[in-house]
Amino acid sequence: MLPATHFAPRAGKFTNASLLGSTPVISVTALAGIPAFVRHAFGEKLLRQASDAAMLDIEAIEDQDCFIPHLTMTTFADAVAKLSGEEDFGLLLAPHLTLANYGCWGDFVLGAHTLSAAIERAIATIGFHSKGDALSIAVSNGQARLSYTSAAKGQNGYRHVACGAAGVVLSLCRSFLPADWRPQSIELDIAAPRRARIFEDMFRCPVIFGAPRVTICFDAGYLRHGPPRRSSALLTVEDLARARVECHKLDGLKDIIAQQIWSQVLTGKVSIESAARSLDTSVRTLQRELNREGTDFRALANAMRSRRAMELLNQTDASITQISMSLGYSAPAHFARAFRRATGTSPQEFRQRAPSRNGVSEARHLAGRAESSD
Fold it and tell me: Are strands 214-219 and 207-209 parallel, antiparallel or unpaired?
């Protein structure tokens, strides 16, 4: 079997940072539950190989409010399909996907009074889930057409993402509709597969291929339906804004890379090779474009690691050694030196002072200092 890196995207060539800074990103919660599905269906080894291809341990962060490039998602899906030999991997996955796993954004959308209101919430706030994706609803002649456009379209592995998107949009509808509800038809923006019939069997309705976007078609009367059980969570757009950034505002290369590094920090392994691969470019090009913006990968990585370190020091009882290991440092001494450079204090001093003096306010002050140091 070929090594997993065979399925990684080839590095692209860019002439300026604006192209890298326009990279579309999506919440990692879009992959929530998928690693477990892959492990159950194909085994631990294949899951590990697919993660290697994506160069990110998705399972370690799938419930976090962080963002990854769409390319990381499609690379992972493409690797699973190729390594397993399952050409319709996305179709098998679709029934298991649900908006309820999409973190605070999913909770906010599903907290609406009716399906129509939930769709309106999703359309208005998609920027808290993805940069580059779009939702829309059209009603004509008694039929509602709920469409999802993905920024991942055109990438290797997109056909699996398209099926997954259909599954998630269906889950949104089913959260408000009777258990026996079925859509009138589904349109997918992918070429007709070799085994088209199994798509209709899985979705239990006619499936049209080669459409402009993923679209669920159903009787517009269902838009007035409320959920069988009301959500007990009271969430506002402001709650969503506090939990997540609006990723459409991540316009600069520095912003995109900071988000990618943060997702890596949460997995305990920071790699410029992984960051470059997620942008479909080379390490050399990435370094050059970061230099043009007055920073470099190491400075950004140190800032993100310091931010995470302060959270762990202030809010957990983990030892310095444990924190050092979780952040990917080869030795506690290396962690201590980097932390002092970023914050002006040692990890031990920070932990001793923060709770007894200013608590969270001091952590925020030092976090601002760490992030401004790059």
Answer: unpaired
